[in-house]
Amino acid sequence: MNGSRPIAFVVILALLGTACGHEEMSGTSPLFPAPQGNTWGFIDNRGKTVIPSRFEAALPFSEGLAAVKREGRWGYIDRHGSEVIPVRYRTAQSFQNGVAIVDTGLADHPVGLIDTSGSWVATPLFRSISAADGPDGLLLGQKEPAKGSGFYDRSGKLVLGPYFLAFPFAQGRARVKTGVREGSDDWLIDPSGTLLPKKPLVLDGIRFSEGLIAVRQDRRLGYMDLEGNIAVEPRYDQGGEFAEGLAAVQLEGHWMFIDKAGAVAAEFPAGIAFAEPLSDGLSLVSADRDQAGRKFGYVDRNGHWVIKPIWDDAQPFHEGLAYVGTWKAGKVAYIDHKGRSIWEGKHAQP
Predict the structure, then answer these.
(1) Which end of the chain is more exposed for a tag (fewer CB within 10 A), N or C?
(2) Pairwise CA distance, residues 304 & 267, whole Å
(3) 78-99 in b/e burial notation, b at 16+ Cβ within 10 A?
(4) Residue 47 or residue 7, greater confidence
C-alpha cells in the first residue's frame, strides 16, 4: 500500500513491523524503540528516554526482551538495557510464546529457535522459518528450496507437508499450495493436514482473522468462515482482515467498514486510497492530498478522521502510540490518538 519509500524509512518500518502486535505480557508499561541519528534507544509512552540510544537497530519489547543490533549482530536486552542473550546472530525476531527465531549466519541451514535464556529449542536446521505459533508448537519452515515449505515440530521433524507454498496457521487453519490438483491448487488445511473443501472460491486472504478469511468468486471479494461457508457475499473490489469486529473493504473506489454479517458499519471519507485493519481503535489510511501527493492518517471505527493525512509514512497504532515520519526532513515521531507528538527524533538519510 505504501508505494515508493526512501530506503532509511523502509528499514525503520520493517524493523517495527516485524514485531507489530507483540504486546508486553508482564503488565508493565510498554517501551518503544526510537532512533536518534544512526542509533536507537527506547522511550516510554510519555516520550521519556528509558534506555539511551546506543544500538544500530532495535525491535519492540516482547515477553520482557527486545532484539537489538550492535556491531552488525543481534542479541537481546531486558527492560533495564542489560544484555541477557549475547549479540551473536545475523538476524533475530521478537519473542512469541516463549521462543524467538534467530539466524546464525551459517551457510546452509542458519535458522533455529531459542528460548528466553538463549538456549536452543530447535537447533539451526532450517533455511528459513516463517512462524512459531502453529498448533502444538508447529513451525512453518523450509530446509531445502526444492522441497518446498512444511510444518515441523520443535525437534525439526516434518509433521505436515511439504507444500509448494504455505502460510502460518491461524485459528486452526493454514493456507497451502499443493501444486497437484487441477483448477486450483490453493487449499486450507486443518492441524491434521486434511484438505478442507472451499467450494468454487479463490482464497484471497493469507490467514483467518476473527473466524473469517477473504475469498474471491467471479473476481469479487467476500469472506468465508472456518467451516467453508460464505459469511459475507463476494461483492467488493478489495478488502482486508477483520479486526475489532470490522473489516475495511472497497467498492467502486470507495472504502467502508463492514461487520461480520456484511452490513455496512461506517463509510470512509472521500479520497481514501487504501485502509488497514483497525488497531487500537483506528485504521491507518492513505489518501491523496492534491499537490502534496499521497499522505497517511487515521480514521476511527465510525469512519471519521481522527488524525488528518499529513505524514509521508506511518505504522498502525500499537499500545497507544503510532510511529510516523516525513521524508524530506528525516523527521520521525510517536503520536498519540489525538495526533499529538509525544516524542520526536531524526533518522540519518542514506
Answers:
(1) C
(2) 8
(3) ebebeeebebebebbbbbbeeb
(4) 47
pLDDT confidence of residue 2:
42
* 8 φ, ψ (degrees, to nearest 5): -60, -40
| Beta carbons of 31 and 79 less than 8 angstroms apart | yes
Cell of 298: 487515521
Q: Which of 188, 148, 155, 156 is nearest to 172 (CA)?
A: 188
Contacts of residue 322, Cβ cutoff 8 Å, sequence gap at least 6:
280, 282, 284, 298, 314, 315, 316, 334, 335
Q: What average pLDDT is seen over the chain?
A: 88
The Cα–Cα gap between 262 and 246 comes to: 9
The DSSP bridge pattern shows strands 158-163 and 165-166 to be unpaired
The Cα–Cα gap between 161 and 54 comes to 43
Q: Return the residue matching grid coordinates 467451516.
A: 227
Surface-to-core class of residue 284, CB atoms within 10 Å of its CB (0-12 exposed, 13-18 middle, 19+ buried): buried
- Answer for the pair 282, 306: CB distance below 8 angstroms, yes or no: yes
**Which residue type, as a one-letter code, is found at position 272?**
I
Query: Which of 272, 262, 317 has its CA nearest to residue 295?
Result: 272
Q: How confident is the model at residue 27 (pLDDT cuts 50, 70, 90)?
A: low
Report the pLDDT value the prediction gives residue 292, as an integer from 0 to 100: 65
C-alpha to C-alpha distance for 36 and 30, rounded to whole angstroms: 19
Predicted pLDDT of residue 234 = 96
Measured CA to CA, the distance from residue 136 to residue 169 in angstroms comes to: 11
Half-sphere exposure of 249 (CA within 13 A, CB side): 28
End-to-end CA distance of the chain: 22
Question: What is the Cα–Cα distance from 349 to 151, expressed in whole angstroms?
Answer: 40
Average pLDDT on 70-86 reads 97
pLDDT digits (tens, 9 = 90+) for 257-275: 999 999 999 999 999 999 9
